[in-house]
Specification:
421 residues, alpha/beta, TIM Barrel, 3 domains, 15 helices, elongated
Length: 421
């Protein structure tokens, strides 16, 4: 059993992180008055670490996310980015001291603490990844919480088995591209002023209309086949909010939706919170409306446009009856907004306690690449699969049926190669 000694300050926060690190390992913890840092023992190994974050930063310096840490060290042998501490290491037989605050750093990353003080928002009212601590320091593409946890396991020489899974998710923002062809084609000319796009969409429309081709956004059979082929857990998130400029262009009462639902009904169904819903306490109303429409219990969801802030999302989702939320990602960048592949209970910053909301982080989605185009979807997916095999947990992929490019063939090819390998 792992034995832990630490000070009797910030007890809930520390236990929260130890529960995350040792989720599959028995541990005991002793809180001692005037104790300095952390001492962790396993077998005949004893490792000590400082407490920099809770002692010097927590609830004292809220704007740490707005500052760039210029001297971001990498541990000499393990390539661990050091956010709180230094490379200093002392060893005496089986006793070690590492000047790196593993516990505080994981809390800092896992709870999105670095985002709390950011007031700046993009045009959709979201925190931009470029303004975050992780974005400024080029750390979004590293699962820091998982990396630190594994680093601690390596120090203590604890063997750990990993279960790696791919989760396939889909946000149904719209059903068909040519449900309202005049609006689509007219928008290419009047709103987007793009003649080439108009000609491309006109050609697609004529094929659908005259040659009985499948609507280009009717990708549901492809998605279902993909999940079945590789035995993937699959989620579809359906918008139930009232129609608005940013919300749905379909009704769950339409026959088109009902036909699609018959196809996807055996998958896990979640509610896609409306554009304003996280901030207007509408999640519960939408969840109940969707349950009534499909006559199935709904307890998971994701925010439309990924429009939320961490503190408000925790409160609104729980009040709305959500058990598992899939929103934690950035629209403009793939990676690790909270540093992990693993689903975990979110931290309630308002009440300073572990919440009952499971957070299932989002790692990669198609529209990041079609809209921002700053990297290769295929190369990124391969990179994430390799990381996932190393650290375990769930690699969460989001494919929109209405995305400009259908990446399902790439996912299929990469998964086939990965599984064969």
């Amino acid at each position: 059993m792992v034995k832990i000694s630490t000070s009797n300050t910030h007890i809930k926060e520390k236990k929260y992180i130890f529960d995350f690190i040792f989720s599959n390992q028995k541990y005991g913890i002793e809180f001692i008055d005037q104790f300095s840092g952390y001492t962790i023992e396993f077998g005949d190994i004893r490792a000590s670490f400082p407490d920099y974050f809770f002692k010097n930063y927590y609830k004292k310096i809220r704007d740490i996310s707005l500052k760039t840490i210029e001297n971001l060290h990498l541990f000499p042998t393990e390539k661990v980015p050091i956010i709180f501490g230094s490379e200093k290491c002392e060893k005496s037989e089986n006793s070690y001291f590492y000047d790196i605050d593993i516990i505080g750093t994981i809390f800092f990353i896992l709870t999105c603490y670095s985002e709390i003080s950011i007031e700046k928002r993009d045009r959709f009212g979201r925190v931009d990844y470029k303004d975050t601590f992780l974005g400024k320091n080029n750390l979004l593409h590293i699962p820091i919480a998982d990396l630190y946890s594994q680093y601690l396991y390596n120090i203590l020489k604890i063997e750990k088995s990993y279960e790696s899974r791919v989760i396939l998710t889909h946000d149904i923002d719209q059903l068909f591209k040519f449900k309202t062809p005049l609006k689509t084609l007219g928008g290419d000319i009047i709103k987007r002023k793009n003649l080439n796009l108009f000609l491309k969409n006109l050609t697609q429309y004529l094929k659908v209309k005259l040659q009985s081709k499948r609507d280009p956004w009717d990708r549901f059979d492809s998605y279902l086949n993909l999940a079945e082929r590789y035995g993937l857990d699959q989620y579809f998130f359906i918008i139930q909010s009232n129609r608005s400029i940013h919300d749905k262009l379909y009704s769950t009462e339409d026959k088109d939706f009902k036909a699609i639902y018959q196809k996807i009904s055996k998958s896990k169904i979640g509610v896609h919170y409306g554009f304003e819903s996280v901030f207007s306490s509408k999640i519960g109303e939408e969840r109940k409306g969707l349950e009534k429409t499909i006559n199935t219990k709904v307890d998971c969801g994701r925010s439309h446009f990924l429009r939320f802030d961490y503190k408000t999302l925790i409160k609104s989702a729980i009040e709305g009856g959500i058990i598992n939320d899939f929103s934690l990602g950035f629209s403009g960048s793939w990676g690790f907004r909270n540093g992990t592949f693993k689903p975990y209970f979110g931290w309630d910053h308002t009440n300073d306690r572990r919440s009952d909301l499971i957070m299932s982080p989002l790692h990669i989605m198609d529209t990041t690449f079609t809209t921002y185009g700053n990297s290769s979807f295929e190369e990124t997916l391969r990179y994430l699969l390799n990381l996932n095999s190393k650290f375990g947990g769930n690699l969460n992929i989001l494919l929109h049926n209405s995305a400009e490019i259908d990446f399902s063939d790439i996912v299929d090819r990469v998964l086939e190669e990965y599984i064969v390998r």
